[in-house]
């Protein structure tokens, strides 16, 4: 089988989209399949030209305003069609499609290639955090336009499934993520790190992720009211300097990966994540595998991952007093933390990447079968500005459906 993986971001940029793709490529290699990646060029360079079995085709790109490391590909449908036609894939895998994915799904349809769209990023809900609330409805309309054209859409959590269903996306399936429980393991807990972060025996409260507006890392400043804690922040991003000013006593490690990341996570006592627009939140799953209790919002992916009162706490989004209260409860009750910790590891047992990727292969086969049954999708509206224009009726409908999804959560 030949798989074309179309990615909004890829190496050297590291995030949930990239990391999932690396797992898929490794799985395809183990099966004896072939793969190629189509991705934007990296900032300042083309970036790597191969990863494992996969060749990487880089497209001209521009940086996202205010976050230059996020690249937006500029190529049109004709260019993507030529790349796909030359490669001749059996399936087109659209990783978190939005800009490049919008182009690629139309190219796949023109070539009558089956496509699977992986919904991973709730981009429309970023609008408010980036002072563009007026554009949220337009962005939801784009999400609908992309996913209704794909043969199959895979959502990572039950919340995301419900959200897309109410938006009107057809042909939805659930596809969560695996976790490397060998790497992320309580045995990786580091005495040296804990001496560095908590020299007086403080309770270590940690966060891992991008330092950007949508992650709401600034909410951790509210934890200053809790005595006896040490806050550790792992990651990089455009909000780094602002957060250093807001959290002067926190330990900032910078970007970590591999065993260094696993060691850091296992050395936390409590894992916190304040982002309210997570479709899954892989870092929470890695914390659970490391035996670390979690405090996160009751919205999105964390709902599936955190068993409230057993492996951590889920607080009402926006209710920071509730957030601080749950963290304080865990800080002041060692026995409760230990009980939660024992349950954390058990909660993710069996969630292997091998099983997750095996199920993806089944979804590839299903998408191929669906494609054979669907009428030609090379329709006139694929050659218009549909999805780029603001159609007030469609925008209002998309916003209303998404609002109902939020209310029902």
Name a few traits of the molecule.
about 400 residues; alpha/beta; 16 strands; 2 domains; six-stranded parallel sheet
**Order of strands in the sheet with the most strands?**
3-4-2-1-7-8-9-10
Into how many domains do the coordinates divide? 2
Strand tally is: 16
Q: CATH H-level name of the largest domain... which superfamily?
A: Glycogen Phosphorylase B
Give the helix level as a range of percent. Answer: 40-55%
Tell me the name of the CATH class of the largest domain.
Alpha Beta
Which structural class fits the helix and strand makeup?
A: alpha/beta
Biggest β-sheet: count, sense, barrel? 8 strands, mixed
Mean pLDDT: 91
What separation lies between the terminal Cα atoms?
Answer: 39 Å
| CATH-derived topology of the largest domain | Rossmann fold
Uncertain segments are 379-396
Rg: 21 Å
CATH architecture of the largest domain: 3-Layer(aba) Sandwich
User: How many helices?
Assistant: 15
Based on Cα principal axes, name the global outline: globular
Report what the structure shows.
There is one protein chain. The protein is an alpha/beta fold. The chain has 15 helices and 16 strands. It has helices at residues 16-31, 77-87, 100-110, 126-129, 136-149, 158-167, 191-197, 240-246, 258-266, 282-289, 302-305, 320-331, 334-347, 353-373, 392-408; strands spanning 2-7, 34-40, 50-51, 54-59, 61-64, 67-73, 91-95, 115-118, 152-155, 172-174, 203-208, 229-234, 251-254, 270-272, 294-297, 312-315. The strands form 3 sheets. Strands 3-4-2-1-7-8-9-10 form an 8-stranded mixed β-sheet, sandwiched between helices. A 6-stranded parallel β-sheet has the order 13-12-11-14-15-16, with helices on both faces. It is globular.
